[in-house]
């Protein structure tokens, strides 16, 4: 994992930046222990891992293949 901005995490998760901010507020106690204060612009790698695991975000496949329409 690497440091990510809240915008980058939002893009990878397919949600808005506001949603990621809500997630961070909801989990502020955990994120503080993971070296990410609430107003941080960049999320510490441990915080990124926690949020990805909690919300089932796959950072390895940021652009999943598009589904083809069946004829």
As for the number of domains, it is 1
Q: Biggest β-sheet, characterized?
A: 2 strands, antiparallel
Succession of helices and strands: EHHHEH
Number of DSSP helices? 4
Q: Give the helix proportion (percent range).
A: 40-55%
Strand residue content: 5-15%
List how many beta strands DSSP finds. Answer: 2
Comma- or semicolon-separated keywords:
71 residues; mainly alpha; two-stranded antiparallel ribbon; globular
Question: Could you walk me through the main structural features you see in this protein, from its secondary elements to its overall organization?
Answer:
This protein is mainly α. The chain has one domain (4-55). The chain is 49% helix and 6% strand. The chain has 4 helices and 2 strands; from the N terminus they run βαααβα. A two-stranded antiparallel ribbon has the order 1-2. Helix 1 (6-13) crosses helix 2. The longest helix is centred in the C-terminal third of the chain and has 11 residues, at 45-55. The termini are far apart. The mean pLDDT is 88.
Produce a short descriptive summary:
The protein is built from 4 helices and 2 strands.
Topology:
Layout lengths: L3 E2 H8 L3 H10 L1 H6 L8 E2 L1 H11 L16
Antiparallel strand pairs: 1-2
